[in-house]
Amino acid sequence: MKLSEKYYNEKLKFQLELSEFAQSLGDKISKEGEWNIKGFVDIFKNIYTISSDTKVISKILELHLFPYFTEFAEITNYHLELPKYQNYYPDITFINKKDNKIKFAVDLKTTYLNQKRQGYCNGFTLGSHGEYFINRESSKNIHYPYNQYVAHFCFGIIYNRVFLTSEFEAKNYSVDDIENIPSVINNFIFFAQEKWKIASDKRGSGNTANIGSIKKVDDILVGNGIFSEFGEDIFNDYWINYGKIQIETEEGTRKTMTSLNEYISYRGISHG
Prior knowledge:
Helix content is 28%, strand content 26%. It has helices at 5-23, 26-29, 54-75, 131-134, 166-170, 217-222, 232-240, 260-267; strands at 30-31, 34-35, 39-41, 46-49, 78-81, 92-96, 103-112, 125-128, 151-161, 173-174, 185-194, 199-203, 210-213, 246-248, 254-256. A hairpin with a 5-residue loop joins strand 14 and strand 15 (254-256). The protein contains 8 helices and 15 strands. The strands form 5 sheets. It has a 5-stranded mixed β-sheet with strand order 5-6-7-9-11. Strands 3-4-10 form a 3-stranded antiparallel β-sheet. It has a 3-stranded antiparallel β-sheet with strand order 8-13-12. It has 2 domains: 5-227, DNA mismatch repair MutH/Restriction endonuclease, type II (ECO RV Endonuclease, Chain A); 241-272, no CATH class. The chain is of the alpha+beta class and 272 residues long.
């Protein structure tokens, strides 16, 4: 979708505000790099430590950050809406209070640093390339139709996992011990990027229809993804047609197109 000058300027303004907001969060959710969340508390003031399960960590991080997103919406003069149903896209919709046609999709994504490959993370998914991505007027599994959003952002948190002993995980703590409880994650990196700028040309989760991300942290932070050379329209066309186009191999057989290089060759697009 080619944006009018007004909407383009609003997108740039919103991305700048979202990026500045992302950079402000480190001190709000961590102390000296260590996550402020230590576990769950019951009515007897017992603390049950958090496991290193990434799904658990991801959900708690979202809950921890949500009040700050509410503040951000107020400061930037946007309404904040959450999806009506679980697993609907996006996690948060921001709607401009002065012009409700200005909507931004913000998906919260968390992942951890790859301790075996310095400078890389484990990556994350960037939403479906299924029905609502193909049919931009569809309401299936999406809060508003895809084409009603001025832009689609990934708000990401990359963290370092701390592998703790089973003795730690089995131990009960009281509220008085809270300062001595180690954090299961630390050293947060926050960023906000348009999702097409950090997308890869591979699915992010096996055989499900999810767009995968690039994994080099420095490239993620500056939006230097595999599609950055070609633009958002190429990103859209590639993923709308992912797994559908048949191409001929050097051996003369047919195969499904599943890489950007194959797509560029098929479409006759030149680099640079």
